[in-house]
Design a protein that fits this description.
single chain; alpha+beta; Phosphorylase Kinase, domain 1; Aminoglycoside 3'-phosphotransferase, Chain: A, domain 2; two-stranded antiparallel sheet; 9 strands; 49% helix; kinase activity; phosphotransferase activity, alcohol group as acceptor; Kinase-like_dom_sf
């Protein structure tokens, strides 16, 4: 099978986020995939996967006929160290990394079969609160396993530091632009600055994950569930909980103190620090949200967590 058409979501996001550089990456993508197929003796085994944002992911067969996945990413600060995390996970709770090309950032990875996303998996009573708690338990259990000490390795990108995010937020919120002040509010910006200070000296550091949510966990045969698409940062355990709690608070059926407690306990992280990271995520989300209805919904969800 020849090079497949780039999924529309990938093309749209790469162009919207990266402009001319994104177009150059898209233009070069067929040549990149062809080169990697030759280097790793691969055959395309189906159309590229839909639903990504800035990576071309396609099923392949290796020279011995074994199934795998080829992933070519548009590299940025958030995803550059994905191969580093997969290498250090060693398949323990995440898909295995078979090979890595430093020149392009491309990865040859284990193919998780059947690969159904945890978010859309139908459990008994899948729309009930109990089923939602089960999904949360599976996810936090996996992310708890994946947090581990970080050992830099030659040939693999270093992890960005989560404290760098705090520095960026502090600089942005200390002297807010008018539109930022309007979207987030003066009181919340002051609270965000205080949280940046409170989180600046983490009690532990290891491989954290910025993109913790239910769609990044898929069903597999080797283990019941495996994490895909990690966005690793040098961070404390509570950092993982910040994004996960933010997403569940914003979109899930559960919220408030009960959800906060379940996420913190599932991750083995400090409850107050998980809450602070999640509220910083909310402030950042409000700062980037222009639609009035989305802004109102996010503000309400944030308020429920602030009251927790």
């Amino acid at each position: 099978m020849r090079f497949g058409v780039v999924p529309s979501s990938v093309r749209r996001d790469v162009l919207n986020w990266h402009g001319d550089a994104g177009q150059a990456w898209l233009d070069e993508l067929p040549r990149t995939v062809w080169s990697l197929k030759r280097a790793w003796s691969l055959r395309i085994d189906g159309p590229p996967y839909d639903g990504g944002s800035h990576s071309y992911v396609v099923p392949v067969l290796r020279e011995d006929g074994a199934s795998a996945v080829l992933k070519v990413i548009y590299r940025d600060e958030e995803n550059r160290a994905e191969p580093t995390a997969l290498r250090q996970y060693g398949g323990d709770g995440a898909v295995r990394l078979h090979d890595y090309d430093p020149a392009t950032g491309a990865m040859l990875m284990e193919r998780a079969v059947p690969g159904n996303r945890l978010k859309s998996t139908r459990f008994f009573g899948h729309k009930t609160p109990a089923a939602a708690w089960r999904r949360i338990g599976i996810a936090t259990g996996l992310y708890r396993r994946l947090w581990r000490p970080y050992e830099p390795e030659a040939g693999y990108p270093d992890l960005p530091a989560a404290t760098g995010m705090l520095d960026d937020w502090r600089a942005r919120y200390a002297d807010p632009a008018p539109d930022l002040l309007d979207r987030v509010g003066d009181e919340r910006l002051r609270d965000a600055l205080a949280r940046c200070g409170a989180l600046a000296d983490p009690p532990e550091l290891g491989i954290g994950n910025r993109d913790t949510h239910l769609s990044n966990i898929v069903s597999a045969e080797r283990e019941p569930w495996l994490v895909i698409d990690p966005k690793p940062y040098l961070a404390e355990r509570a950092f993982d909980g910040g994004y996960f709690l933010f997403k569940q608070q914003l979109h899930g059926p559960h919220s408030g103190a009960e959800l906060l407690r379940a996420v913190a306990e599932g991750l083995g992280a400090d409850t107050a620090r998980v809450r602070d990271w999640a509220l910083l995520r909310f402030a950042d989300h409000l700062a980037e949200t222009a639609d009035e209805r989305d802004l109102e919904a996010a503000s309400k969800a944030m308020r429920d967590l602030e009251d927790a």
